[in-house]
Amino acid sequence: MASKNSSKQKLIGVVGAGSFGVAIANMLAEKNEVMLYARKEEVIEEINQEHSASGRPLHESIRGTFSAEELCQSCEVLFFMIPSSAFLEVVRKFAPYLYPYHLIIHGTKGLAINLPEGKTLESVQSLKRSQILTMSEVILQETVAVRVGCLAGPNISKELSLGQPAATVVASRYNEVILEGQKLLRSERFQVYGNSDIIGVELSGVLKNIIAIAAGALAGLGLGENAKGLLISRGMVEMVHLSKALGGSVQSVIGLAGVGDLVTTCNSVDSRNFTVGYRLAKGETLDQILETMEEVAEGVNTIRVINAFLKTAGIRAPITENLHRVLFEDLSIEESLQFLMKYPFSVDVDFV
Amino acid sequence: MEENYIKHRHEPIIPRQDEWPVVKLARERKDFVKKVAEMAEKRVLSLTGDNPEILKEELETTLYREKLRIKQNPWAVDPDDEAQFWNEVKQALLQINTDSHLRKAGKAKAYREVLQKITNRYSAEIASNFKASHYKFTRRVVTFGFSRLLNAARVKGFKSIFSNQYTLQDKIQITGHTDQIRDLATKGTIVMVPTHFSNLDSILIGWIISVLGMPPFIYGAGLNLFNISIFAYFMNALGAYKVDRRKKNLLYLETLKSYSKEAIQFGCHSLFFPGGTRSRSGMIESKLKLGLLSTAIEAQRANFENGINDVSGKIFIVPVTINYHFVLEAPGLIRDYLSMTGQERYYKENDEFSTSYKISKFLVKFFTKGSDISVSIGQAMDVLGNYVDQDGNSLDKRGRIIHTRDYFVSEGKVTVDPQREEEYTHMLGKRIVEEFHRINRVFSSHLVAFVAFEMLKARNSKLDLFDLIRLPEEEISIPYEEFKAACQLVMDKILELKSQNLIDVAPHLNRSMDEIIHHGLDNVGMYHAKRPLIRSTKGDILTEDMSLLYFYHNRLHGYGLEKLF
Fold first, then answer.
1. Strand-pair partners of A57
2. Contact criterion met (CB below 8 Å) for A27 and A55
3. Which of A15, A113, A126, A313 is the most buried (most CB within 10 A)?
4. Residue B38 pLDDT > 60
5. Do A174 and B386 count as a contact with CB atoms less than 8 A apart?
6. Distances from the Cα of B424 to the Cαs of B200, B234, B283, B296, B317, in angstroms?
7. Can you give the residue ranges of the Phospholipid/glycerol acyltransferase domain (chain B) (predicted)?
């Protein structure tokens, strides 16, 4: 497949040259030409001249651009692979060049909030569902594109670039988006599942980050595998309840994008979220941790958003609530653990 | 008083009757019926995956249900040869099943022939019989009828029945994007989707269309209305095609959808009530029937497929809300709603017309009082719910021109993807509901009914709806000052919503709160024998019929105003 024959004519756009973006661009480039968007000119130079992005090697079928307009004009299918903190900004930048024929698949795990002008999460205290947006909802709100999907699953970039076997879920309300995603990404080492519950899949990817922080904390306290098993199973129950309250289905949470990703992240010492928990348990404060992290761990933001949502939702989410107290209200991690051990859980599983 | 509503009569946009799309369609009726039948046949074949076994099953199911319908639920309007036709179908199916000489291909062909026979029959049955001369006559009758219903109040005495002192446009306020709909009707094809509260709606909308100078629209009317020959005459004259709710089989539904789609593609402006039937609860429709709506999207895609990319092939969705102070059949509607939702928890109270005194009181009111009606025409949208400008261009949220065709394109060409279009229909439905809420006009009567009901509900917070509507009358009294304060609270919130363009208000709400309340109490359900709201001699607010109050209150459901209580 390395030769550039007629079957490789299609140009696929990838937005974002971070580790995940590069991994996906490389996988896409096995079958098609890829145009990779990055904001910084020097990164584009590196891509086009040295076939690498920030030192990560790139497939030869990839070329770079820093023009949103060029990317949108050349490609019908776009993969948005950007951190959630920059998501809104990038989507707004692309919006003027996007048309209804564009098909967008994003791989971002995060939540955005939609508040009236001048309001912040601190000043509103509580959030309604309509004020919380998943990334696909951000795309729908900001652009005219409707055929939107997301990528979610246990996809550690490092392993993907090494070509180790993995799988992902492409979720969309549109069958054609799922089929397109499968066609473009599927390979001998990469399985692609489809799911029509895009909200449930996005939420799974978002909520597991909360549990990942808790997993890091358990590891930091040196509490062992029994504790981790307990956390993962209770974490999943919490994810199911939250996902249901936010409009996702149970099935998606217990699928690859939910439980699959949860198990992977809770065992991954490289994960930023895991690291936050770990360092908290070692006695650092949130401010100290954030100061030395390059990118914000998404789970921290998710905890704030979900905690605000809990006030209007009328449900309990003990792990999230306790992490919120640890992160923002000076509860010590040991005390929090004490609280969780005494929490009156009555039944193991009450949602199936 | 704000006078922003339309009072003048518009010039017809197509003066020559024989150029009206409906007239053209009537001229080509025979070919059109055939085309619809063929289209329906194709749809059924594709739905059954061209598999003769599945087709056979559909045919047998249809036969079984039709025979059952003929036996259990015959109507006067049904043709005489109904039983004979279905017996022939039965014979044909029997023959195919028993004929051992027929190979698979032969059987498939034979089943297709039976299918063709049925879709032909359905198609001919559904098709409308529009006659321009009848239309003109009907228009005059309708105009006269409306004048009687609405005009009587201002001109006293028996003579008022023949008075034209106040024209209809004084009483029926047409607001909103009237010029745009007139413009677009000459450029592309309009699909009008109004809210549905009263039997009056169909006639009212027909009348509005003609006042706006537009050629008649086609619309689906229940076949039961054609049972009565005088109704049949009017319905035909207004361009109605027939919808038989008894027939729920796949073949019929597909023929019906084909009819709607082909008529839109033909360029006939259409109208359907997307809520299906009248709103039983009095609420603005929130869940729409998507079947017919999907035909608008299909027709649009088909036009693009056929290369008609300019505005002449464009389909415009125009939401319309109709507001009344009263709905004649409200007691029946809300009773249906409550017994549907409450089941055994709800039992009927004694009848509306319990005494002859009440009946005469009703009749007196009916002939001596008038009432306002308002019709708001929403901004036109394309089939994906994007607003369109005066020239019919679709605009995105930032006002950039986009092409509706792009929604149906993949890899550069228009493609057919039923699952995609299903999602689009869903989106369109949601957009229409949103627009309904936005252009809905609050009347004084809605305000007072809403406030009174919510106050009673808040006072009896332990009771559920069904206990609430059975509250003994002596417990239902609200001191006037308290009531007025609550009305003000809700009014302020409504004005805030209006400033965000999320609701509209009638001009009579610009008066003082006392006047608004007075106006509202006078008008709310004014024709009912038992009034939803009255004022006692002491000045307190009382109700004579809790379920009616609930009905009129529901008009303001869906705006989050309940939270104020």
1. A52
2. no
3. A15
4. yes
5. no
6. 31, 35, 24, 11, 13
7. 190-325
DSSP for B391-435, written as a single string: TS-EE-TTS-EE-GGGGGEETTEE---HHHHHHHHHHHHHHHHHH
Residues forming beta bridges with residue A112, ordered by sequence position: A133
Residue from A315, A192, A209 nearest A258 by CA: A209
Residue A177: both structure tokens together? 């988006």
Interface test with B, best of A10, A72, A99, A179 (most B CBs within 10 A): A99
Q: Residue B123 and residue B121: Cα distance in Å, rounded?
A: 5
Residue A126 CA to residue A116 CA, distance in Å, equals 13
Do the Cβ atoms of B420 and A95 come within 8 Å?
Answer: no
Contact (CB<8Å) B398/A96: yes
Is the pLDDT score of B142 beyond 80?
no
How much is the pTM?
A: 0.89
Domain span(s) for CATH 3.40.1130 in chain B = 174-359+373-439
With CB atoms and an 8 Å threshold, state whether A101 touches B407.
yes
Q: Which residues of A touch B412 (CB under 8 A)?
A: 76
- B→A contacts (Cβ < 8 Å), by residue, are 384, 386, 396-398, 400, 402-404, 406-407, 409-412, 417, 419-420, 423-424, 427
Look at residue B359 in the predicted model and tell me its pLDDT: 54
The verdict on a CB contact (< 8 Å) between B411 and A95 is no
CB contact under 8 A, B410 and A76: yes
CA distances in angstroms from B308 to A249, B292, B304, B317, B408, listed in the order given: 41, 22, 5, 18, 13
- Give CA–CA dist B75/A331, Å, rounded: 75
Of A95, A100, A176, nearest to B406 by CB-CB distance is A100
Residue B338 has pLDDT above 90, yes or no: no
Which one of A94, A101, A184 would you mutate to disrupt binding with B, by most B Cβ within 10 Å of its Cβ?
A: A101
SS3 B355: coil
Contact pairs from chain A to chain B, CB under 8 Å: 43
Measured CA to CA, the distance from residue B205 to residue B214 in angstroms comes to 12
How big is chain B, counted in residues?
A: 565
Q: Is B314 within 8 Å of B404 (Cβ atoms)? A: yes
Whether residue A116 lies within 8 A of chain B, CB to CB, comes out as no
Catalytic residue among A10, A40, A158, A208: A208
Partner residue facing B407 (CB), from A95, A146, A173: A146
* Helix (H) or strand (E) segment spanning residue B535: strand B534-535
Are the C-beta atoms of residues B250 and B171 closer than 8 Å to each other? Answer: no
The answer to whether residue A175 neighbours chain B at the CB level (below 8 Å) is yes
Nearest to A99 among B402, B411, B427 (CB): B402
Q: DSSP assignment of A270-308, as one string?
A: T-HHHHHHHHHHTT--HHHHHHT-SS--HHHHHHHHHHH
Nearest to B11 by CA among B179, B144, B158, B145: B179
Residue A103 near chain B (CB below 8 Å):
yes
Nearest of A309, A218, A324 to residue A267 by alpha carbon: A218
Lowest mean pLDDT of A16-30, B210-224, B300-314, B339-353, name the range.
Answer: B339-353
β-pairing, A77-80 with A11-15?
parallel
Give yes or no: A208 in active site.
yes
pLDDT by residue, tens only, chain A of 352 residues: 344 444 556 899 999 998 899 999 999 999 999 999 998 889 999 999 999 988 889 999 999 999 999 999 999 999 999 998 899 999 999 999 999 999 999 999 999 998 888 888 888 888 999 999 999 999 999 999 999 999 999 988 888 888 899 999 999 999 999 999 999 999 999 999 999 999 999 999 999 999 999 999 999 999 989 999 999 999 999 999 999 999 999 999 999 999 999 999 988 888 889 999 999 999 898 999 988 887 778 899 999 999 999 988 888 899 999 999 999 998 888 888 888 888 776 677 777 6
